[in-house]
From TrEMBL:
Protein name from the UniProt record: Nucleotide exchange factor SIL1
GO molecular function: adenyl-nucleotide exchange factor activity
Domain Nucleotide exchange factor Fes1 residues, every copy: 196-270
Keyword annotations from UniProtKB, A to Z: Endoplasmic reticulum, Glycoprotein, Protein transport, Signal, Translocation, Transport
Gene: LOC115174834
Pfam families (alphabetical): Fes1
The keyword Glycoprotein is assigned to this record: yes
Family membership noted in the UniProt record: Belongs to the SIL1 family.
Organism of origin: Salmo trutta
Length: 513
């Protein structure tokens, strides 16, 4: 049992015909410390020196009997231990095999057409039945599980690392490919003609794009289909002027037209083509919805458009708008009409002069004094402030360093607008301060700015108005507290501070002699 054996481990590379002389199987009995050498033809135990001395003293026949008994005993012992021991059977190469050169180990494989391709790695993997093993792979029998295990040889590992992905990594996760799939891939390669495939690809690519001539024709068609703003306005005006159109259709046409006339060119085209006159005529309609929509279109077309402003004044638009404001109308109609009047008067001294001649200030005063004026009152005060401020700005010396003919003409037209004397005459010096009682801060701000603008002609009347003085004092105390609140919140130059500055300026000018 204590027989020492040589611990020889070698790679198996010889074919089966030479396995009897070049290959041995070494069974390691780890828990007993015994090594037994097993060959294909017989099992032999190498005796120690003491055993050889004893055996020499016996006859030749006795040695043969003892060897036979030891052989039978060893086979039985190996069989019993192999069933209980966790050791494994390992294929090694004998010293003689290394002298004769390396040869591939023989692995019994079935027909390559019927076997699945097995992909070994650098680690031992269990070989399943029906899988073929590539040449040069290491194969061993695991005595614990009774299954064959395979791994790559050294030269195979290097080859896989170079050829796998050309990235220095071994492709161990690749899917297995069976023989049928390999045949199908081979047939595909044979059936595909590279020249034919290139032609088909080019034709398919050409089919995705159109020639330049066809693209030009398509662009021309698109230009014909797409309507310009002028064409759309012409269609809307025709729809609005149609005798068969309902009120809803006319209102919708005016709503779409209002979106287009914000552009200066579109508004001028509407006026030059006679569309503006149709919109002005709608102000005389008995339907309030048409009056409101027509006023909205006029306000958008007149805004910052001198050409359309002059056309509207000459066509009598201002008279009709003032008529809507002077007669009983719904609040929505008056809001739109006042919007159109403000757009017509802004930066147009020609329209402002006609406005004063037509009694526009009187109409606005009646609306301001009427109960329920609400938002109309602050809009009226804003119109008056803009008219006063425009004249002051245009009259300032050095406003235009190089005056031209148009500038001189504007100066002449603004000189004909005598607004402030009419404001004082018609009682606006007492009407504007009424907005100071409003709870809205914005309304108070606009009232204070208008009071300052009217101060040259209303100062005497303001000093006699004790209600105005008490109102200004109360507002000063209120906004001083609001300014402190803003400062606590970190807003040094807030909105309330601006209103407080206006209040202090009004009080200061009232105290001046």
């Amino acid at each position: 049992m204590g027989i020492p054996l040589e611990n020889e481990w070698r790679n198996v590379n010889a074919p089966p015909s030479r396995l009897s002389t070049n290959r041995v199987y070494v069974v390691m009995l780890r828990h007993l410390g015994v090594k037994t050498i097993v060959t294909q033809s017989f099992l032999k135990v190498r005796p120690t020196a003491s055993m050889l001395i004893g055996c020499r003293r016996r006859r030749q026949s006795t040695r043969q009997k003892v060897a036979l008994v030891l052989l039978v005993f060893s086979c039985q012992f190996v069989h019993v231990i192999s069933e209980k021991s966790p050791s494994a059977l390992t294929v090694v190469e004998s010293p003689e095999a290394s002298l004769e050169g390396e040869e591939d180990a023989h692995v019994e494989e079935g027909d390559s057409e019927d076997l699945d391709v097995f992909h070994p790695t650098d680690k031992w993997k269990t070989l399943k039945p029906g899988h073929g093993v590539p040449r040069g792979s290491h194969v061993r029998l695991n005595l614990q599980t009774g299954q064959r295990e395979v791994k790559l040889g050294e030269h195979q590992t290097l080859k896989y690392q170079i050829d796998g992905q050309r990235q220095g990594k071994e492709n161990t996760q690749g899917p297995s490919v069976n023989a049928e799939e390999l045949k199908a891939l081979k047939n595909i390669k044979e059936e595909v003609d590279p020249k034919t495939s290139d032609k088909e690809e080019k034709e398919a690519l050409r089919a995705q794009f159109h020639p330049m001539d066809e693209l030009k024709k398509d662009m021309v068609k698109l230009d014909m289909l797409m309507e310009s703003d002028f064409q759309i306005m012409s269609r809307l005006v025709s729809q609005f002027n149609s005798s068969n159109a309902t009120v809803e259709e006319k209102v919708k046409a005016l709503h779409d037209l209002e979106y287009l006339v914000h552009k200066v060119d579109n508004a001028q085209n509407l006026a030059s083509r006679g569309g503006l006159k149709l919109v002005v005529d709608a102000l005389n309609s008995t339907d309030y919805r048409l009056q409101e929509s027509a006023s909205f279109v006029l306000g958008s077309a007149l805004s910052s458009n001198p050409v359309v402003q002059v056309e509207a004044v000459e066509s009598g638009t201002l008279q009709r708008l003032l008529m809507l404001l002077a007669t009983p109308r719904p609040m929505s109609v008056k809001k739109r009409a006042l919007f159109a009047v403000a757009s017509l008067l802004r930066h147009c001294p020609f329209a402002q002069s006609h406005f004063l001649k037509l009694g526009g200030l009187q109409v606005l005063g009646d609306i301001f004094r009427a109960s329920g004026g609400g938002a109309l009152r602050v809009r009226i005060v804003t119109i008056l402030y803009d008219m006063i401020n425009e004249k002051e700005l245009i009259s300032q010396t050095g406003l235009d360093p190089i005056p031209d003919a148009s500038h001189n003409e504007r100066l002449r037209q603004y000189a004909q607008v005598s607004l402030q004397p009419l404001l004082a005459e018609q009682g606006w010096c007492s009407l504007v301060p009424e907005l100071l009682a409003s709870p809205e801060h914005d309304w108070k701000e606009k009232a204070l700015r208008t009071i300052l603008a009217m101060m040259p002609h209303c100062q005497t009347q303001y000093r006699k108005d004790y209600a105005l003085s008490s109102s200004l004092s109360a507002l000063q105390e209120q906004y001083q507290e609001l300014v402190l609140t803003e400062q606590v919140l970190g807003d040094e130059d807030g909105y309330f501070g601006e209103i407080l500055a206006l209040l202090e300026m009004v009080v200061l000018k009232l105290k001046r002699v």
